[in-house]
């Protein structure tokens, strides 16, 4: 019996349910349904995109029968052929692709990441001494958070998606969220129910806020969605799904969670629709959405209409995501109510797809622990038959829920690393926890864990963590972190320099080793926050390690910056992090001078910050293609059909990373250190702050925070309203700029450390 069926059998027996009646509660039906030949071709084409003509050195074959015999677990086999090729066989396309990537890493020293590739593949291919067989202990390797769609992928075209799906396959991901284009279907459903276009326009948010519209947190903010959006997104979704399925992935589609347009209340006055309270710092102009009681007959109707249309347009792999209570308190904590709700949500899925499995984000349990006590959690998850809901233990590296709920009371769960909030730039990681956590969860008594996952709110940052976590999904035990990261550095830059390996070990021992419980990767640096006299400058690691890593990378910069894109990226990233610390030092000096009325000193420190550090940071970021505001904005504009739409999309793009709402409702949550943004947004704010402090000393008046906030809001609003263009290609020489910064500021950084 397979491992995943084994636990269910145990639980079912414990509940007195014979195994036979639940043959497909084992989740065995969640598997690629496309033929082996198609998957083989898809992997071969992936390798051609990745390796060009060297792809022909690999002989790929997908044999579905092979892996499944070993117990539903994905597996691959690697061997060398007589003619110096490498043969890879996987039971799915994903398994085969992951096999190739593990060979490329371990035998060829290669590397593929969001921030660049290192693909100098030796010729001929290094031989594999004896056949390698690997199987993943994790039935599912999940990817994405419902927010990733808004923070990272919202403006992607097909080539960018194609690259991401390749990355997923190489990293062994087989359960990706596929949320693109769902508004096209929702629109049809609501029109068919009798709503008109203005009803719908008052419902959908703009593109950059769809994640929160879908979860009922927001409505209409950043909207309305142009018709061309629906057309383009629906056609993008078809390509995405085709590609995912051809590689043997099992895409997760959306289902109805109960959030409806306000007009439903007029059209169906009998339906039990409640208006929810305001979400986060929004008022009811854009929040206080409407929730249809899942027990109402209309719920089943809408849920069915949606799934039927979706099935017709996009097909299905029998797994659906729905979050009814994300960051929102249910109407009642009565377990009877909660279990009736989840039963009803699930019934609307099975009414269309009898084999439906509900994938639910477990974020609500982390976010509102005062509401979600054991009886409430138990009621919600057990409202669905055992084995028909998979819970994402979303922030398991910090706040695992599976322990206190004894494996979600028998429902299968996936151990997820959330890692990133708001898609912020900033080095961060909890390496010890991700290295150990999934194995602890697997060995937990009567564990119902069926996989691991990556659930970041935003991607394209800290690539190292995602590579590590993906690799752990295929391992039977934790890695030696320092050894692992040394090899990572060597591969990433194609450099055997001891300095770069030492730099990465230091990073893993400090900034990537956050052990503070509940600490979120949210860049809280004063640099990216609205200035005030009460800013948080705390950090979780020993700064001297970061500065030493900075120095070690700098020592190699002359030779590696020209040869390695990934090195240039990391040189920028580590220098950026060091400058961010230096900004905190300057901030603290400035506030001290202010308190002591030292005008000259304050002006000097403010001058260095405003006229050197921040502009130099902007120069540095602008010199590297992965840190450009221009790319984010131009991608947004490129999604539009006409100028008016382009302006709306640019407004969305600018607002999300700054004010996040009309009035700074979730101010700077999605902050980014990007070339262009540092100069035209953060530096402008700091300029106003420093000049306000100077004026206060000059006129002998105290700093008034509220007045300052009103004034600085005008600066922030002006940035969002601006349509200034920014380069979409890097400007300047990274090595030159990084060296200038190092020479100017490293001694001072180290000096500040001694002083502290
Ligand atoms: C949609 O219906 C509402 C009333 O429910 C009406 O006020 C509005 O003008 C209609 N909009 C359109 C575009 O017909
Ligand atoms: C809601 O919108 C109205 C009309 O635009 C505006 O007058 C009002 O101030 C807004 N309410 C809040 C609380 O911002
Ligand atoms: C309507 O729905 C709310 C929230 O789901 C629930 O508390 C209430 O009891 C329902 N009312 C009726 C009449 O079913
Ligand atoms: C595991 O499940 C078995 C069978 O239901 C039960 O007897 C045992 O007590 C459980 N162990 C723990 C630690 O919960
Ligand atoms: C991370 O920190 C913990 C606690 O201080 C320590 O035990 C562990 O060895 C550190 N890990 C690394 C990779 O340095
Ligand atoms: C930080 O690291 C440096 C260098 O290893 C060490 O000398 C210093 O004591 C550490 N500081 C703290 C607070 O642990």
From TrEMBL:
Pfam families per record: NAGLU (PF05089), NAGLU_C (PF12972), NAGLU_N (PF12971)
Recorded superkingdom: Eukaryota
Molecular function (Gene Ontology), one example: alpha-N-acetylglucosaminidase activity
Keyword Signal part of the UniProt annotation: yes
Enzyme class: hydrolase
Signal peptide per UniProt: 1-22
Alphabetic keyword roster: Glycoprotein, Glycosidase, Hydrolase, Signal
Domain annotation Alpha-N-acetylglucosaminidase C-terminal: ranges: 484-743
GO biological process terms on file: system development
Catalytic activity: Hydrolysis of terminal non-reducing N-acetyl-D-glucosamine residues in N-acetyl-alpha-D-glucosaminides
InterPro entries per the UniProt record, alphabetical: Hex-like_dom2, NAGLU, NAGLU_C, NAGLU_N, NAGLU_tim-barrel
Record-annotated Alpha-N-acetylglucosaminidase N-terminal domain positions: 42-126
Keyword Acetylation: no
E.C. code: 3.2.1.50
Domain spans labelled Alpha-N-acetylglucosaminidase tim-barrel: 141-476
Protein family: Belongs to the glycosyl hydrolase 89 family.
Listed name of the protein: Alpha-N-acetylglucosaminidase
Gene from which the chain derives: NAGLU
């Amino acid at each position: 019996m397979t491992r995943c069926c084994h636990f269910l059998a145990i639980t079912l027996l414990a509940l007195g349910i014979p195994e036979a009646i639940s043959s497909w509660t084992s989740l065995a039906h969640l598997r690629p349904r496309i033929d082996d030949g198609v998957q083989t071709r898809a992997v071969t084409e992936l390798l051609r995109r990745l390796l060009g003509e060297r792809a022909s050195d690999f002989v790929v074959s997908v044999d579905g029968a092979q892996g499944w015999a070993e117990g539903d677990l994905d597996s691959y086999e690697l061997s060398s052929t007589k003619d110096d090729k490498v043969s890879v066989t996987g039971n799915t396309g994903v398994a085969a692709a992951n096999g190739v990537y593990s060979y490329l890493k371990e035998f060829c020293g290669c590397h593929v990441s969001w921030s660049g590739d290192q693909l100098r593949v030796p010729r001929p291919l290094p031989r594999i001494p004896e056949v390698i067989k690997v199987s993943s202990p994790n039935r599912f390797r999940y990817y994405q958070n419902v927010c990733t769609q808004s923070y990272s992928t919202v403006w992607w075209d097909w080539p960018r998606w194609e690259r991401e799906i390749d990355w997923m396959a190489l990293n062994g991901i087989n359960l990706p969220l596929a949320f693109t284009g769902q508004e096209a279907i929702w629109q049809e459903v609501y029109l068919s129910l009798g709503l008109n276009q203005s009803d719908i326009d008052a419902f959908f948010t703009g593109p950059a806020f769809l994640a929160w519209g879908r979860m009922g947190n927001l409505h209409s903010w950043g909207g309305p969605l142009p018709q061309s959006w629906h057309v383009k997104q629906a056609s993008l979704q078809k390509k995405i799904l085709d590609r995912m399925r051809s590689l043997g992935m099992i895409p997760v589609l959306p289902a109805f969670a109960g959030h409806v347009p306000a007009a439903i209340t007029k059209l169906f006055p009998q339906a039990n629709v409640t208006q929810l309270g305001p979400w986060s710092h929004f008022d009811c102009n854009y929040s206080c959405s409407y929730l249809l009681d899942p027990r109402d007959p209309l719920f089943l109707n809408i849920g069915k209409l949606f799934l039927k249309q979706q099935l017709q347009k996009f097909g299905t792999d029998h797994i659906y995501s729905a979050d009814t209570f994300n960051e929102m308190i249910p109407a009642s904590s009565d377990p009877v109510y909660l279990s009736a709700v989840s039963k009803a949500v699930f019934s609307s899925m099975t009414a269309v797809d009898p084999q439906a499995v509900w994938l639910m984000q477990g974020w609500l349990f982390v976010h509102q622990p005062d509401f979600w006590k054991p009886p409430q959690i138990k009621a919600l998850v057990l409202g669905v038959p055992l084995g028909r809901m998979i819970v994402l233990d979303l922030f398991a590296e910090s706040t695992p829920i599976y322990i206190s709920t004894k494996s979600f009371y028998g429902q299968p769960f996936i151990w997820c690393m959330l890692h990133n909030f708001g898609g912020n730039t900033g080095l961060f990681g909890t390496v010890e926890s991700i290295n150990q956590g999934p194995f602890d969860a697997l060995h937990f008594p009567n564990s119902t864990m069926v996989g691991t996952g990556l659930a970041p709110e935003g991607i394209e940052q800290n690539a190292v963590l995602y590579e590590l976590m993906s690799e752990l999904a295929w391992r039977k035990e934790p890695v030696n972190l320092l050894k692992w990261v040394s090899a990572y550095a060597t591969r990433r830059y194609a450099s055997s320099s001891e300095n770069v390996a030492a730099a990465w070990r230091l990073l893993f021992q400090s900034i990537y080793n956050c052990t503070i419980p509940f600490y979120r990767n949210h860049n809280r640096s004063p640099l990216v926050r609205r200035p005030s006299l009460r800013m948080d400058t705390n950090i979780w690691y020993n700064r001297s390690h970061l500065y030493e890593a900075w120095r070690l990378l700098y020592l190699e910069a002359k030779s590696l910056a020209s040869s390695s894109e990934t090195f240039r990226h990391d040189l920028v990233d580590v220098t950026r992090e060091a400058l961010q610390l230096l900004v905190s030092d300057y901030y603290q000096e400035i506030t001290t001078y202010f308190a002591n009325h030292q005008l000259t000193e304050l002006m000097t420190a403010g001058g260095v910050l405003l006229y050197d550090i921040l502009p130099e940071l902007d120069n540095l970021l602008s010199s590297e293609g992965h840190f450009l505001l221009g790319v984010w904005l131009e991608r947004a504009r490129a999604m539009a059909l006409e100028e008016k739409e382009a302006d709306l999309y640019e407004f969305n793009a600018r607002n999300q990373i700054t004010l996040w709402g009309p009035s700074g409702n979730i101010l700077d949550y999605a902050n980014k250190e990007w070339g262009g943004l540092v100069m035209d947004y953060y530096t402008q704010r700091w300029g106003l702050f420093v000049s306000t402090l100077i004026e206060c000393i000059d006129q002998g008046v105290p700093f008034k925070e509220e007045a300052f906030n009103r004034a600085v809001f005008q600066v922030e609003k002006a940035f969002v309203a601006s349509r200034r263009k920014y380069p979409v290609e890097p400007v300047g020489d990274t090595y030159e700029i990084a060296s200038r910064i190092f020479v100017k500021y490293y001694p001072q950084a180290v000096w500040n450390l001694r002083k502290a």
